[in-house]
Amino acid sequence: MAAQVEGPFNYTATGVLGDQRNSMLQNELHLRDKVGHIKSRGYQLPMQSFVYGLPNEKREYSAADALASWKLSHYSLNSDPALRGWTGNYLPKGGASKTKAASERDFMTMNKAAVADGLVTTEETNDYRATHDIRRSPWNRKELSGKMRSRRLPPTMVFGIPSRPSTPIYEVIEHKYQDQWMKERQNLLSNKRAEEVKAGRSNGIVYETRASLLRTYQNPVDPAPLWQLPRFTKSAKAQIQSFRTNTDKSASFNYLKTDRVGRQGDFGIGIYEKPKN
């Protein structure tokens, strides 16, 4: 039997639902592991001629490159023929100004002024700083160092963590702490037992007797009647008369009494007994 030629798709699950493409070799779902080998990943390595690392760019620095990084102020080319052909900026004849070198921009004041004028965005703030150059004198570190008071420490002060006190070995040998704990425990148990005995003897329940009940009894008092207007106590009469005459009223009450048995009971259907034979 001829040996099978190993290819990139021998340990893959491709070719089942379509053609084998090189893009399948980068998909983890199509790859299968080799028995006895470490698991491979679906990333293609570069060619053998590839060199790993950062390239070292060779650049020849000349005087032109060094002078190109200078930031000089504007200067006329015609004023100095020796500098013709130079495209950079130039310093004035007097050199750098001493006022700007001796001062620095006060950004706090400029920010406050910009907010007061209603400028809050970044572009508006940058434009305001470009048109309003507010400066202040720089901080003098020597003066500030003289004003700042250093904390004075006592000469006997020792830095570090205090060491642990020595173990009282003599008290440990004679079991002093054990005896002290046992005494405290015995006192605690005796106090607890005494409280339980005291609570069992007097449970706090007071039994009432006939004499104590009669002593604390109060006769019931009828509540005071509701307040009424004096003019309605005697002359007030009902505005609606349900009966035309007193005879009709008494007859109605008599009928109510006779039919009272039929309206009694739990469900209002009356109380009746079964007939007895």
UniProtKB/TrEMBL annotation:
Pfam families: CFAP77 (PF14825). It comes from the Eukaryota. InterPro entries: CFAP77. PANTHER family: CILIA- AND FLAGELLA-ASSOCIATED PROTEIN 77. This is Cilia- and flagella-associated protein 77. It comes from Biomphalaria glabrata.
